[in-house]
Design goal:
The protein is α/β, with parallel strands linked by helices and about 750 residues long. Helices cover about 30% and strands about 15% of the residues. The protein has 22 helices and 31 strands. The strands form eight sheets. A seven-stranded mixed beta sheet has the order 4-10-9-8-7-5-6, with helices on both faces. The protein has a four-stranded mixed beta sheet with strand order 1-2-3-13. Helix 3 packs antiparallel against helix 11 (about 310-325), helix 4 (about 105-115) runs parallel beside helix 11 and helix 12 (about 325-345) packs parallel to helix 14. The longest helix is centred in the middle third of the chain and has 21 residues, at about 475-495. The radius of gyration is 28 Å and the shape is globular. The two termini are about 45 Å apart.
């Protein structure tokens, strides 16, 4: 925080400061001249940065609402402010009567990340929805052949698509409609999440289904799992368009770039807004397939400000920040923690918790607690949110929020509810806020290892390798290598692991490092590709071994990387079971672009970390997530951005490892439940691990350090699952595929 700020603005959040009456005066002035179409929380915002907001009296608040997801990038993101400032000094608005230098790059990137052919830029979400309605109707007449002025669009009860007269006309909320009629015809309603209701609403005039994947304003309502897939198939059967309104849910909020990705489908058109403007300017768009979007012609639709040069410049940078700062992946990981914390709130309060990603609703409908009173009490405690539909407290912080700040806000939410909850007799329910997931599963750990029969260090691909100096000791080193490897296998088996063996091959000494052969998760195997020519023969041998495993049903499917992409398997991909994500290393041996293949194959959140130290060239040498949620790490191995990301995501769960423990690759460890198998462990590190509740098994693996490997490098896990043990995914013989 800026040390030059006035003292009152640098107080800790939640502290009560002496009021200067500035806020009260501004509220009264606003009431005197502003139509009363909102009922704001009595906080007067003066400035904001990141996830924090300051009011006119100098109080600081944590933002738990993000302007209904418009500020997903955080307030005043430096890159977005810079993009806006740069464009402000060039040109801002000329209307679409002329071309601009910024619109094409913006729409190209928007179409690329969404996978659609065309985009029509607008300003607000409601404008983009109106655009979608016009597109659907014109498609119904010109493509479907519906009689003129008879086309109907099917909409869900409980929807919120905006507040224009057309849109509120098909709302099921009386307050949105009262005394604003008459309304436009051509809309029929169905129950959200109910396919039979959708079928009953269909007529021969139905041209489109317009629906939110998750109903935000209704209280963060999620449909039944698989329902959206059923709707997609239903639309295909009946020749009806599927248009999804992702103004709130899109652009990372749910832990995926778009909410529809959770269901593995694609709509015919997509409505985007809010976060598209990066919290700087209003930007929205309808993106869709060419056969729909090309129905627009000159003069058929438009907006003076839609697609203006300033909006396009900011919109492009917002998309770049979204991807480069991995905001959807952050939302997935932090969202899992958010929901775990919310579900642990005391049962006596009778709360209903719904959510996905960094988007949740705490419903007080079964309690005696007033939601408006709770959000006002939260504001007094330093957290800003807003109720919806009288009973739901919405939680949607900026996607840039840290885990520490998220926990701070949840603690204040819990305290605010506790302040207002009816008196409870008896002992309070025990707190269960951050309990780790179950460590046991239905199957024993399955490991793939390769005997070191032909292991030697005959070439130099790491800076410390010195084959000539070691050649005189080759006989002794070979004996020590075989002995330590056998001891490692024995420890694994004593811990209940099943060890499968990969055949050693003369001339391929690094086959012993099986972690580099592939990444295996949920029975799917993504085969590695190496950058150094000395290791490029290895994948052929590894592929044959995995093909045999595929035939035997030991893996479900094989996948290959796109040409030209290097990725060294589990050496640069570490599964974090507590955060339900893959940490990916890049920059030394693996390419950043490999993350796209990893996401396509495994469908789980990923967070990429850039490795900058030649000594720690694989992620498994400098990062080790533990079963209880702690993460062992060596900060100098990462660039500053990656260090900041790890601190934001793990906070106090990070356990820094330095000195001999780092240089001897103690972090290159294998976790089997609470048992940790390491090739090196100092007394101080052992004490820290024992204090955290782990059992430590040290197998000296010094001979393998010559090539930069230790326990994890010598082991490929075949049993890792992205789902908890209760939802373990079965492995059956499957197919071989190319990663998208």
């Amino acid at each position: 925080m800026n040390a030059n700020l006035p003292l009152e603005t640098t107080r800790m959040p939640g502290e009560r400061l002496p009021s200067t009456a500035v806020s009260a005066a501004l509220i009264e002035r606003e009431r005197a001249v502003c139509a009363p179409n909102y009922a704001p929380i009595p906080v007067v915002v003066e400035r904001a940065e990141g996830a924090w907001i300051w009011d006119a009296d100098g109080r600081r608040y944590l933002d738990f609402m993000s302007a209904y997801s418009a500020v997903s990038h955080g307030h005043c993101h430096p890159r977005l402010v810079a993009a806006a400032n740069a464009q402000l000094h060039k040109v801002c608005v000329t209307s679409r009567a002329f071309h601009s230098t910024t619109l094409a790059p913006f729409l190209e990137e928007l179409c690329r990340i969404s996978g659609f052919a065309r985009a029509l830029p607008m300003n607000t979400g409601a404008e983009a929805v109106e655009t979608a309605i016009k597109a659907a109707r014109r498609w119904g007449y010109r493509v479907r052949g519906i009689a003129p002025n008879e086309a109907e669009i099917l909409v869900a009860e409980g929807n919120f698509h905006g507040r224009t007269t057309t849109i509120v006309g098909f709302s099921s909320e009386p307050a949105y409609r009262a005394d604003f009629g008459p309304f436009a015809p051509g809309f029929r309603s169905f129950r959200f999440g109910d396919l039979r209701s959708l079928e009953r609403a269909r007529t021969g005039r139905s041209c489109a289904v317009l629906v939110e994947p998750i109903q935000g304003e209704a209280g963060i309502i999620l449909p039944p799992a698989g329902w959206l897939r059923e709707v997609r198939a239903w639309c295909d059967r009946h020749g009806i368009l599927l248009i999804l309104d992702e103004v709130q849910s899109g652009l990372g909020r749910t832990g995926r770039l778009f909410a529809f990705e959770h269901e593995g489908i694609r709509p015919d058109a997509l409505v985007l807004g809010k976060a598209l403007g990066g919290g700087i300017v209003p930007v929205s768009a309808l993106v869709g397939n060419a056969n729909l979007m090309d129905l627009f012609g000159p003069g058929s639709h438009g907006s003076t400000f839609g697609g203006n040069a300033l909006a396009a410049a900011v919109g492009l940078e917002s998309l770049r920040v979204l991807q480069e700062e991995q905001l959807p992946e952050r939302a997935a990981a932090l969202g899992a923690h958010l929901l775990e914390r919310l579900h642990s709130l005391p049962a006596r309060w009778k709360l209903q918790v719904r959510g996905i990603g960094l988007w949740a609703g705490v419903d007080l409908c079964d309690s005696e607690i007033d939601a408006r009173a709770v959000v006002e009490r939260m504001a007094q405690r330093g957290v800003l949110s807003k109720e919806t539909h009288d009973t739901v407290i919405r939680i949607a912080p900026p996607l840039t929020i840290s885990r520490r700040d998220l926990d701070w806000g949840i603690d204040r939410l819990e305290a605010a509810i506790g302040d207002l909850a009816p008196a409870h007799r008896g002992r309070p329910a025990p707190r269960e806020s951050v309990a780790p997931a179950a460590l046991s599963g239905p199957e024993a750990p399955r490991l793939l290892m390769c005997p070191p029969e032909h292991f030697e260090v005959s070439y130099r691909i790491n800076p410390w390798m010195d084959p000539p100096a070691w050649s005189a000791q080759s006989a002794r080193l070979s004996r020590e290598t075989r002995s330590s490897w056998r001891r490692l296998v024995s420890v694994f088996r004593n811990l209940g692991a099943e060890v499968n063996l990969l055949e050693a091959v003369q001339g391929l000494p690094d086959l012993v490092f099986t972690a580099n052969a592939a990444l295996v998760l949920d029975g799917r195997a993504l085969l590695a590709r190496f950058r150094h020519p000395e290791r490029q023969p290895e994948p052929r041998h590894g592929r044959r071994a995995f093909e045999r495993m595929l035939q035997a049903g030991e893996v479900a499917s094989l996948h290959e990387l796109p040409e030209g992409i290097c990725f060294e398997g589990a050496g640069d991909a570490v599964w974090d079971a507590q955060r339900r994500l893959l940490w990916l290393g890049w920059g030394q041996r693996s390419d950043l672009e490999a993350r796209d293949a990893v996401r396509a194959v495994f469908g789980v959140p990923t967070l990429s970390l850039r490795l900058v130290s030649p000594q720690f060239y694989h992620l498994d040498t400098c990062l080790c997530p533990l079963p209880g949620g702690e993460i062992l790490w060596h900060p100098p191995a990462f660039d500053a951005t990656s260090q900041r990301l790890l601190r934001d995501m793990a906070g106090s769960a990070l356990m820094q490892v330095d000195g001999d423990d780092a240089t001897h690759f103690a972090l290159n460890a294998v976790c089997i439940g609470r048992d940790l198998v390491l090739g090196h462990c100092s007394g101080s590190l052992r004490e820290r691990l024992l204090a955290a509740g782990y059992r430590v098994h040290v197998v000296p693996l010094a001979p393998f350090l010559r090539a930069g490997g230790s326990a994890w490098c010598l082991t490929l896990r075949l049993d890792l699952r992205s789902a908890p043990a209760s939802r373990s995914i079965p492995v059956h013989p499957g197919s071989r595929k190319m990663a998208a």
